[in-house]
Fold this sequence. Notes:
13 strands, about 15% strand, elongated, alpha/beta
Amino acid sequence: MTAIPEPAQHEAVLAGTVTPVPVAQRPPSGPIAILPHPADTATWAVQAAGGVLAPLSEATRGLIWLSYGRAEELRAALDDNPGIGWVQLPWAGVDAFSDLLAEQDRPGLLWTSAKGAYAQPVAEHAFTLTFALLRVLPKRARAVSWSTLPEGRSLYGRHVVIIGAGGIALELIRLLEPFGTTVTVVRRSAEPVAGAARTVQTSALHEVLPDADVVVVAAALTADTRHLIGAPEFALMNRNANLVNVGRGPLIDTDALVAALAAGSIAGAALDVTDPEPLPDGHPLWTEPRCLITPHSADTPEMTAPLLAERIRLNVLAFLGDGRFVGVVDPQRGY
């Protein structure tokens, strides 16, 4: 089989968060199944790490699930094969499996995801959208005549608030560094984030919004973070502030965003994710001149395939021996 090229990533991002699992809590190693359909990259990754691939059966101990949805099929596979001790999910966000994660939270079953694996392309996309908003590109792209109105702002020296402290946030901080920006990270815990001038808990979000030039949403979607940005938050943001969402659509109250843009409460918004998704034809955001929408394309299959393969390879190595799993999911927290 042709070797999958190793992704050319910044080392810290590629590594992700390693969670050494104590020997007593490690899932027993054994045959690994790939469902719903095998992929060359996943097959290569399992074999490159020394894993044994086999069809799903009572002997299966590891399961690599390559569909973002189809949670009912995954539930059936786990119910029918209780010997499975490790499940690898394909995306960074696991909100599509939140009910299943909570239901199947039990000793002897370890979940891992791709969180952190796609940080580089998603952070790059957030960076691109930030530039586009500051330089008024949504308006420029729609223009049909020469404008004499001087518009546009520089990124240099701006205050950027990043909501979320995962791999996307860490990589975005690295990309912002040459521009002399001041970065504030909003996260669940108060643990400082490297490269951020300030780290605050989610409860302090309202304190940091008024001074933000750019707000980048890159958090996990949970029951606690749904509509994290809504009418009260837009009311606190200044009229020159721009909003970028590369996390999940429901992190933002779409109706409140439509109203804020229409009223000029914020300068603009750029969305790679929407609620609902896909955004239906005729939705007011499509014709909002200060809104830029990309169709959940921050990380395309071409970008993610080698990154997921590397995540699978590392976790198969952990599964077979060293227990150093990457991207371990907390089933109760949902990420």
